[in-house]
Design brief:
- By secondary structure, the protein is an alpha/beta fold.
- It is built from three helices and five strands.
- Strand 1, helix 2 and strand 2 form a beta-alpha-beta unit.
- The termini are far apart.
Length: 123
């Protein structure tokens, strides 16, 4: 990966942090999904669709794969953001009701649990 691309992705992550913590209302970020790559969406799809279509809830989808196609979907009540390098900072500072992820080794290595009372769900 070229240096310029790395800088561009880092700015995208900073923008995602800004959107998450400054532009979204607290209620809009109650339910957060984290996908390590684009393959994770197959595990989340039914639950996300139910939450946004049947329950009318707002869902945030965080991906660490810049090629993940989910940010291009135009679904009402679904906001997708890209965070990879800053993920350890994001997860430890997360202030949401629920974080749903496919990562079983949370709090073992560099990705830590939120210190703000967020419930973590392994799916």
């Amino acid at each position: 990966m070229k240096f310029i691309e790395k800088i561009r992705y880092l700015f995208q992550e900073i923008k995602s942090f800004y959107i998450f913590y400054r532009q979204l209302d607290k209620k809009e970020r109650d339910i957060v999904f984290y996908a390590e790559d684009e393959a994770s969406y197959i595990y989340f799809e039914g639950l996300i669709d139910h939450l946004i279509e049947q329950e009318g809830l707002k869902v945030i989808y965080i991906t660490s794969d810049i090629a993940d196609p989910i940010p291009t979907l135009k679904k009402e009540n679904l906001k997708a953001l890209y965070i990879k390098s800053l993920l350890p900072l994001f997860t430890v500072s997360l202030n949401s009701k629920l974080l749903i992820m496919t990562m079983p080794d949370l709090h073992r290595f560099h990705i830590r649990r939120s210190e703000r009372g967020t419930h973590h769900v392994y799916l």
